[in-house]
Specification:
The protein is mostly helical and about 210 residues long. It is about 80% helix and about 0% strand. It contains five helices and no strands. The chain has helices at about 5-50, 55-75, 90-110, 120-145, 165-210. It is elongated, with a radius of gyration of 32 Å.
């Protein structure tokens, strides 16, 4: 009979230790989650220092949309004067080009919220695309009005061509526009890739830690 109290005492001590272990595990889990949250906040702050904030992103988006619709309208105006062009086919090409460039700028504007643009990259891409769009449309109108042929072999077939300096200016302008457009596209692709990589690197460890 004397051993019974001892046994009861051991069972009571075990029953007291078990809740303490459960509580310590809960505290440890909470501390892990809080630590991960702090790391996540710090990483987000470091990334957001050089990235566009919500207001700046919205401003660039609206600017791209406005210029896109404006270039689109210019493309719709171009065929009105087709009978007055020295090269009517060039005027029709300017109409098509204006529509395409306008839609392209609109598409770029719609990608702004989904990409991680730094302030420098966003400004550079904006000016590259906008200057390329207006310059390309202007050169095409210029070629249609004066009947340029050197860089417009398809639409200007059968025409004698314009002045030498006009042909050279149009050719150089088109080459620069191609370089500007490709550079802007690479900036957008890189920014979209960065958004994908950063979202995976930040969210994946958090989800696995919280599940554990």
């Amino acid at each position: 009979m004397s051993t019974l109290p001892g046994l009861v005492h051991k069972d009571n001590s075990y029953s007291k230790i078990q809740p303490i272990n459960i509580l310590s595990k809960k505290v440890e889990t909470i501390m892990k989650v809080e630590t991960v949250d702090i790391v996540n906040d710090f990483a987000s702050q470091q990334i957001s220092k050089t990235l566009l904030n919500q207001y700046e992103s919205e401003e660039y988006r609206l600017s791209f949309l406005w210029h896109g619709f404006f270039v689109f309208v210019l493309g719709c105006i171009a065929p009105i004067f087709i009978p007055l062009y020295a090269n009517p086919r060039g005027g029709l090409s300017a109409h098509t080009l204006g529509l395409m460039l306008g839609i392209f700028l609109i598409c770029i504007g719609l990608t702004i919220p989904y990409a991680q643009f730094t302030k420098r990259r966003a400004e550079l891409a904006f000016w590259l695309f906008v200057v390329s769009a207006y310059s390309g449309y202007t050169i095409q109108i210029f070629a249609a009005v004066f009947g340029l042929t050197q860089s417009f072999l398809v639409t200007a077939r059968g025409y004698s061509g314009g002045l030498f300096w006009m042909e050279i200016a149009a050719t150089v302008g088109l080459r620069l526009i191609s370089v500007f457009t490709l550079a802007g596209c690479f900036i957008v692709l890189y920014s979209l890739r960065q958004a994908q990589v950063n979202s995976k690197s930040i969210l994946s460890p958090l989800s696995t830690t919280k599940i554990q």
